[in-house]
Write a structure and sequence with these properties.
2 copies of one chain form a homodimer. By secondary structure, chain A is of the alpha/beta class. In chain A, 40% of the residues lie in helices and 17% in strands. Chain A is globular. Chains A and B meet through helix 1 and helix 5 of A and helix 1 and helix 5 of B.
Chain lengths: 230, 230
């Protein structure tokens, strides 16, 4: 018995349903004038540490919240809560990605109109999240220097689905003999012209550039007078 | 429209079919007296480097081969080929795990009766491979010290599906302030009694213990006179 064709067909319906929900979310985000940024990467790439720094940098000037997905535990929500920003954990059980319906449910208690930025940290996975639109404006793919320069070539779909790449843990670049030129070449081979940030949540290196990108882009794109908290 | 229940049902059929095929593979492996060891981990944990060292250590005394799964590229097969052991790449496209049917197809050119060890390197993913039995005797879950001590708690299913844990890149333990006791506590919380190896493919640390475990276990379990190449 070969059940694969039927699985593919059902999967396609799920994706169609997800795309439909994601379009609805994008429309809600646009109306509420909240900028939504999602983060994908493999487990242990440093998404949470990077996001904690980002939330902490933004919170004095902007109204910020975060959703964070994991199969199990609310460890990441507790870590992110240290930034003193509202954070909600989405526990997916055995599901290896977030879906638009999960985002929709998690938004229940949040007033989007009172937010400038909403961050969504996906489940740590370089495959599953790539096909699921979450209605975000910007998708970041993170890659730590300890993972190796070849990952964009080996996981092309997720690098292709993302808008911006962030090389994390660059404080370890020398000790792991990270080949930055090769990594960049591989990223550009998959996603020509992709912007690449290089950061260390530990030393703070590169976070200023990232922060400028984020705030300038938000201000420009949304053209909001209410963007900054008075 | 909620398509989830139907998806779950189809997925269950696929798994049933996979379990059936995996039972067949296990029987073939047993008859051929080949010991089959699979490796799972997140992307960039060092599966390929660890496997290359393992193949190189074993090849003078044992007849060894490897299958290696990736979404795209045959980079890993080329890296593993440096060990001068027969290696076959399985390219999965968008599928985030290996399945028994893929192993079955990849075995076409290999004479199992002429092998002592067959290694199967799964796609880098801490979620998808957990439900797919490949007919292996032993499943290793690898975790690099750079990924953080919390991963067993956040990806319990895959740690639970594995028989042995391998902490990799331990040469970096000090620089990333890896908390070995916490990691071990988390592994034991998910899989009580799980044996844990600590290795560095770079410095060679811990590889002797791993090698002894592998060969003693193989000799004992299979009780083979033909195990060692004369």
């Amino acid at each position: 018995m070969n059940t694969e064709p039927r699985l593919v067909e059902v999967r396609r319906n799920v994706l169609k349903e997800n795309d439909h929900l994601a379009r609805g979310l994008r429309e809600r985000f646009r109306k509420a004038r909240v900028r939504v940024i999602s983060l994908v990467s493999s487990p242990g790439s440093g998404k949470t540490a990077f996001l904690e720094k980002t939330l902490t940098m933004l919170r004095d000037s902007y109204r910020v919240a975060a959703l964070v997905g994991d199969l199990a535990t609310d460890n990441d929500a507790m870590r992110l809560a240290r930034s003193q920003v509202p954070v909600k954990q989405i526990t997916t059980g055995t599901v290896c990605h977030l879906e638009a319906a999960m985002i929709d449910r998690a938004l229940a208690g949040l007033n989007l109109a009172e937010l400038d930025f909403l961050f969504i940290e996906n489940v740590g996975n370089l495959v599953c999240p790539s096909s699921y639109d979450l209605g975000e404006d910007l998708r970041l793919v993170l890659l730590s220097v300890t993972e190796g320069e070849d990952k964009p070539l080996k996981y092309p779909t997720i690098f292709n689905s993302a808008d911006v790449a962030v090389l994390t843990k660059i404080d370890l670049a020398a000790v792991v003999e990270f080949d930055d030129a090769a990594a960049n070449r591989n990223i550009q081979a998959i996603r020509p012209g992709m912007q690449v940030f290089r950061v260390s949540a530990k030393t703070g290196e590169g976070l200023d550039k990232w922060s400028s990108f984020l705030t300038s882009r938000a201000d420009r794109t949304n053209d909001r007078e209410t963007m900054r908290i008075p």
